[in-house]
Amino acid sequence: MKYNVIAAALIVVSAGVIASEQGHDMSAMKNGMSHDMSSMKGNPAPMGHDMGSMAGSPGVAKDVSRTIDVSMDDTMRFTPKSISVKQGETIRFFIKNNGKVPHEFVLGTTSELKDHAGMMQQMQGMQMQHSMPNMISLAPNKKSAVLWKFDKSGTVSFACLVPGHMEAGMVGEVVVK
């Protein structure tokens, strides 16, 4: 038990050092971790994620061209699983958690999602709340929105990064044409 507490503390300290080196304000970290874009300066790259990546960039409400409803549930599925958008389009994803356990909707490249999921696995047991423009964490029966601009053509992935959910198939894609 003593070693588990020490290992968890080392993970938190290591994450804090990495985050500080990347310009994160870690003052919000108490019993868990919180990514909060509002305190970041310059071009944010939270926990190794470049928000101006192949996945696109944060959207602006006045530029939203349409809203797409996405539901997630305890069958470890998103509905719809595949979405088509036009290059340059800003989408408001209206996300609803129809499940009985917390779920997430996280947009990114496949490698970004896998990297972040690995970090989440290492920090399992700690409460980690996401509040970045490309992701939302939702409690059961809650809903919220994510605004995202799809800058480049290609495929952008989305997944639930709650440990075990992505591995159980809770993934989807946005095809940008």
Automatic annotation (TrEMBL):
Cleavable signal peptide: 1-19
Residue span, Blue (type 1) copper domain: 71-177
Q: What is this protein called?
A: Blue (type 1) copper domain-containing protein
From which organism does this entry originate?
Aeromonas caviae
Question: What are the alphabetically sorted keywords of the record?
Answer: Copper, Electron transport, Metal-binding, Signal, Transport
A GO molecular-function annotation: electron transfer activity
Q: Write down the Pfam families for this protein, in alphabetical order.
A: Copper-bind
Give the matching InterPro entries.
Answer: BlueCu_1 (IPR000923), BlueCu_1_BS (IPR028871), Cu-binding_ET (IPR050845), Cupredoxin (IPR008972)
